[in-house]
Structures
1.
Amino acid sequence: MAVSPQSSTPFHPGPLAGYRILDLADEKGQLCARLLGELGADVIKVEPREGDPTRNNGPFFRGEPAADMSVYWWAMNSGKRSITCELRLEPGRDLFRQLVAQSDMLIETAMPGEMAALGLGYDALREVNPALLMVSITNFGQTGPYSSWQATDIVGSAMGGHMFLNGDEERGPVRTTAPQAYAQVNFQAAVGAMTALYARGVNDGLGQHVDVSTQESMAVAMDNNQPIWDIRRINPKRPGVRRNNVGVLGARYLWETNDGWVTALSVGGLIGPGAGAIIDWLAESGEARGLDAPHWREKLTTLAPLDPTELAHVEETMAAFCRTRQKEALVAEAQRRGSGWAPVFGPREIVESTQLAARDVWVRVVHEDIGESFIYPGAPFKLSATPWAQGARAPHIGEHNEQIYGALLGLEAADLRRLKMRMVL
Amino acid sequence: MRDANARKQAFEGLRVADLAWVGVGPLVSKYLADHGAEVIRVESTTYPETLRRVGPFVDDVPSVDGSGYYANFNSSKLCMSVNLKHARGPEMVKRLIAQCDVVTESFTPGTMARFGLDYESLRALRPDIIMISMPLYGQTGPWASYMGYGHVLQAAAGYNHLTGWPEEPPIGTGVAYTDFLVPHIAATALIAALDYRRRTGIGQYIDFSQMEGAVHGLGTAILDWTANGHEQTRMGNRDPEAAPHGCYLCRDGRYIVLACRTEKHWEAFKAALGRPEWCDLERMRRRWQRLNELKEIDRHIQAWIDAVSVDPARPEVVVDDAPDVPADWRFTTDELVAHFQRFGVPCGVVKSPEEMRADLQLEHRKHYWQLEHPTMGLRSYDGPAFRLSETPGVLRKAAPLLGADNEYVYRDLIGLDEEEFVELLTDGALD
C-alpha cells in the first residue's frame, strides 16, 4: 500500500504539475480541487481567519467534534496547503489579488454576485490576470430565475430530476445518503475546469469564466429518462427492487442472500438469450422449480412475454435460490456462467474487496499531528506516464501561511505578524 | 479584445477513435465532441452498439438508427462501421488510429489485444497516442473479466447500500447510476493527459476502472469506516447533519424537499411556518437537539403542508385538527417552494422528466438542445452541465447513423481508393 508524504512537497509526478489553483470552495467544489491536486496541481485552500466553515462538518474522528478532527475536512482537502486571508477586509482582498495574479485557476462556490460585491468578480479578477480560469460552482448557475435560491444536496437531487427516479411507489422519492448532487457537481466542475485549461493552451493564454450548476449536473445523470419523456411522453415510476425498462416497470433486480444482497438484471439472467446457463445452474442444484422444462427454456431464452403469474414464478424461483447462498460465491458462479451479477457492498466490504486489493488502490495517509495514519481511497485511474498521487493530510488553518506568503508574495515574518495583528491573516 | 471568430474550441483539431460501448465511454467522448473534437464512433452492423438496441424508439419501432438513448450520448460525433472479426477489420482500425490523437475503449480486458489494438501496438503506430480503457473493474485483478452494467456496478461500489430506507432493502438509485458519475472522472484524467501531451509531446495509457472511480463519489463513507470503524448506511431522506431534512407530499401528488443545515436555515424555516409554538420548545433549539426529534418535526411539517397545500385541479380539502395558519396561506406546490425560498430555506420540487424539460432555470441556461436527426426528427439532447464563457460547448449535430461517415473515414482518413473501398464493402469488412 502506498503511503502519503508527511507534508506537501512541491514535486509531483502528475500531469498537472506546475499549475496553481486557489480553492475558495465549499462542499460543491472541494473534491474537484482535491482531484486536480492529486493530478499534480498546487492547490492552495484560502480560508477566513476562523477557518473554513466546512471544518465543522461531520463526521468527526471518534465521533467527537473538535478542531482539526472533521473526517469530512480530511476526506475533501487532503493534498492541499492552507492559508488564511480575510476577504472581508481590503488588505486581505489585496493579498488575494496578488495570489490570483500568480495562479492559473480559482475555484469558488459563493452565491452569484457575492464575489462581485467583494470586488472579486470575474470581470475584476480578469483585470488582474487575463489568463485566469475562474470556476464558479453554484446551486443553479450564475444567472436565471432560481440563481438566488438556497439549496443543499437534497435540493440539488430533487430539482435535478434524479430523486424522482429513486425510491418506491409506497414511500415516495429517496435521496442517496452519501450526497450525490455534491459528488456530481464536483466532478462536472473538474471536467469544465480541464476543458477551459486545454482551451487556454490552444488559444494563447485565453482566460475564461466557467459557470457550473449543481441542478444541471444532476440533470445529465437521469439515464435515458429525458429521451423517454421526449419521445414517449412517459414519466417512469419509482422502481424499488425492480428496474425501469424504457419507462415501464420491469423485472426485479435485487435479491437477498444469506449474508446480504446481490444485484442481477433480467431476474439474474433467467430471462434472455443466455438463460440456458442459469437454468442449468438451478437445475444442477435441484432448484429449478420446473423452469428446466423445454417450454420454459424456450419461453425464457426467446424473451417471450410472461403473464404476471409466470413472472412471479420465475422471480420466486430466483429469490429462493439466492436466499440460501452467499453473495460473493453466487456472483462468481453467475459470472462464470455469463451473467453480469454484482454483490451489494457496504464501506467495509469495499475496503476489504479482493479486487481493489489486487489493484493496489488504497493509500495510507499519515496524520503525524495526532500520531495516526488512515486508509484513504487511492488512485481513481492509473496513468502510465504521469501517475496520480496522494498528497499529505488535509491542512490545519493557515498551516502554510509563512511558506506561501513568503515564497509567492515575498512577505517576511514581520509582515505576517503585522497582518495578523490587523486580523487579515 | 481577441477576435471571437479566431478562438478555437477546446478540442478543435483533435481526432478521437471511440471504440467504447454503452454509457461510460460515449459520455466521455461526448465531452470532447461537444467541445470541438472530431470523434469517430467505431461500430459494427453485425454487433450493433448496445444502446442502439435499447429504446426509447420513435413510434416504438426498434431500429439501430432510432434510439433516443444512443442519440443523447452521441451528439456531435461521426460514425464508421467495421467488422473487427473480418480479416482486414483490425487493419482498417489501426490505419484510422494512426490518424488519431486519442483512442477510447471499454471492452472486457484482453479484447483490444486480441485484435492487435493494445496500447503497445498502437503506440508503435503513433508514439504520442493517448489511450484510455474503461471497463467495470480495470485491466487486472480477479474481477477483471466480470460483466455487468451501471445498474449492478452501483451495488458493488456502495450506492445500493447507501440508498433506501433503514432496515429495508438496499434498493439503490432507479438508474444505472455509476454510468452517469464515472465518465466525468475518466474525462478529467483524459484531458489532463491531453494537456500534458500538448506541453511535452508525451502520450500515455490510462487504465480506468469504473468501480475505482465510483468509490470517490461516496463522500465520507470510506474514511468514516477506516478512521472511525463506523459504517454509514442508508437513512431514507434523513441526513446526519441537518434537521429538519426530508421529502414531503403535497396535495397535487408531487413532493417537495426541504433542509435546514444551519441555524440560519432553521430561523428562516420558523419564520416561513409563521412561528408555531412547537418550534420554540427547548428541545428544538439547537441542531444537535433537533436531530433527536426528527419524527415529531416531520409530523409537524407534513401537517402544516396538509393545511396550506392546494391542488389547483381539485376542490379544497378541509383538514381536521389543522395547525393554526393564516386563512389566506394557500399554496400550490410551486408557490410553496417559492414561499420557503423567499425566507431563505433550502427547498425544491422533486422534478419529473416532464418537469425538467419545462424547468425555467434549465431553459434560461439553454440546457436542452433541439437537433434534427435524419430518421428521428427534431429531438431534445442534453448539453453540458458547465458553461465556458469564451469557448462554450456546441452540440454541432444530432447522433450519427450507423456507418454514416464510412466514405469519409475509409477514403479520406484511411486512404483507400475507390476500388479497394468497394471491395471491402462487398466483402463484409464494413459490417
Note: The radius of gyration of chain B is 27 Å.
2.
Amino acid sequence: MLNIEFPDDLISLSLYNVFSSRINDRKFIKHAKDWNKKIVLHIEPFYPVTVIFDGTNIKFDRKEDPEPDMKVTIHVNTMLDIANDRLNPFFAIEEGKMEVDGLGEDSEKIMRFYNIFVVSMQMVASEPNVNYFEINKDTR
Amino acid sequence: MTTIHQRNVFERISKDNVYSKLVKIFGRDYVSDKDVDLYPYSQDMTENKPHMPDFVVIPQNNEQLIELVKFCNEFSIPIVPYATGNNVGGLTIPDYGGIIVDFGKKMNKILHIDDNMMYALLEPGVTFGQLKKHLEENYPQLRYSFPNAPPYSGVVGNVLLSGMTNLAAKIGSMADSINGLEVITADGNVARIGSCFYGKDKADDDSWWCRYPMPDLLGLFVNFQGMTGLVTKCAVQLWPKEPIEKPQLVVFFGLTDLAPFLREVGRADIVNDVAAFSIEVAKMEVGIPEPVRYPEEPPYTAVVPMSAKTENQMNAKLEILNNIIEKLNNEGTNIHLIDYREFAKLFNLKALNIFNLPSQILSLHEYSGLTWFGAYAPSHKFEELIEKTDELYRKHGVPPFNYLKIMKGGHYGIFRPIFRFKKFKDQDKIVKLLEEIADVCIDLGCIPYKTPSWITAKLREKINPGWLALFEKIKDCMDPNNIFNPGRWNT
C-alpha cells in the first residue's frame, strides 16, 4: 500500500487527485513504491511543485527542490492536451512543449515517470476520480 | 445588531381561539402549535437571533390563504411566508412570532411550462432541483437560470429577492425575468400582475407571457421580503438550451486582475455568467478545513459558463475572450484561460459543483453557521472592495471567501463575502468581521440583497429621506396592520 499525503495547495491537490485515483492499482504501486526520487513538476503559469517518492510514501512540497532527480516544465494547456490524448507526450518533448531535465538514458526513470504521471493523468481525464467523499469530522 | 421590541400577538384574540380558527381553515393535520414542530422555523444558519413562531400552517389552496389573511389582518397577527428556509439573511425567522405559512409542503407544484413563450408557472414551494429535473425530463430544449444554491432551495423566494443566476452576465438577476405574479393582499384581495391580468376569476395558463406594458405593480412585491402580500403564483422566464457548452476557467495572478476582466467580459456579450471566487473558496470546495492562500497561488479564479448554437459560434466567442485576456495582459494583468471541464477532472470533480447548478457545496454548509454580505456593487469599485475586504479578512484571521459577478451585459456587479462559522464558538468573531465588511462595502456604494434587519438599519442611516418616506407610505398602504413578515427592513 502507498500513503499519499493530503496537500493544501492548488497544484499538489491536483496531483493528489490524480495519484489517489490509482492508489489500489498494482501497476501504479509497482512504479511508485521505492522509487525514492524527487521530481519537480512545473505546470505553467502556476508554480513548481516537488513530488517526493520515498518508500511507500508520496509527499508534495510546493517549492522547487534545488537538487531534483528530474524536472519537468509544461504549460497547463499542453498538459491537458496530453491527458486528453490530443498530443503524444514524446512529440511534446520533441516540439519543445514539454521540457524534461534529468531524464538521461535511464529507461527505468522514463518508464516510471511515464506510468506515474502521464498514464495516471490520461486515466483520470477519461475516467475521473470520484473517490473523494470524505467527511470532515473536525468541522461538524 | 438591532433590538427587536416585542409586540403582543394575542392582544385582541386568545391563542386558543387562533388555534381553533386555523384548524377550521386548514384542518387539524395542517396546523401545529407544538414546540417540536415550531422549533425548525425559529432559526436558520445565520447569526440572526432565533425566535419561535406561535403556529405553523401548511396551506393547500388560495381559499385557505384568503381566509387566513383576512383573519390575521383583523386581529393583527403576523404572517411569515416560508418555502424552504435556506436564505442567509434570517428572512423567515418570525421576529414577532405569529404564523409561519409553509408553502414548501403542499403548494409546490409546477403548474405549467410554456414551450412556445418559454416560461414556467410555479407555486411558491417549487425547488430548483425539482424545476431542473422537470425541464430535463420533459423540455430538454429549455433551461432555467440557476443560482449557486442547493437544489432543495426555493425558486420563487429567490426570484422575489433578486437572487443570482448562472445566466447573470446576460439577463441580470432572477427578478429581471419575472413575467407575472399572483398575490393575496392584506384585505384578502387576489391580484394577478403581468399579462395574466385579463379575466375575472382565473387566468389561462398560457397568459403569463409578459410583465409589461401596464403599470408595473411587480415592484410592490419584488425585494419586499414578503412585507406586502402573499405571493401564490409566479411565472419565470425560461431560455433555449444551447447545444454547445464549453465552460472556461480563468485564473488571476494579481489580487485585483479580476476587476478589469469582469468589466471587459461583461460588455463583450459572449459569456453566460462569470462566477469568480477567491482561491480559498476553491480549496474549501475540495474539503480543506481552513484554506490558506500561498503567495505563489492565484488569489482569484473564475468559472465562465459559455454556450453556443454551433461550434463556429463557440470558436468566435472564445477568440473574443482570448483577445480580451491578451489585451488586459498587455496592460499589466496576469490572467490565463484553461478548459474548465478538463481541468476539473484533474483537480477534483467537486470543482464542477460551481458549474453544475443548482448544487450543494457540502464544505460550505458543513459548519453550523453560514452568513454573508451579498451585495449589488458598482463595478468600478471592485478593486477597492477586493483590497479593503482582503485587509479585514487578514486582520480577523479568517480566510477570504469572496464571490464576484458581472451582471446584465456589464451594467453592474455583485460582491459577496460569505462566511461559514461554528455557532456558539466563533460567531462573535465572524459577526464583528461581517459588520466591518458591511460598513466598508456600504461606504463604497454596495447595496445588499436578502438583507437582515440589522444591516437594513445601517442602510436606513444612509438612504435619502424621500425614499424612506415613500417606502413607509407604501408599506402602510399595502399592510396597514403590519401583519406581513413584520420587522423586515425595520418595519
Note: The two ends of chain B are 15 Å apart (CA to CA).
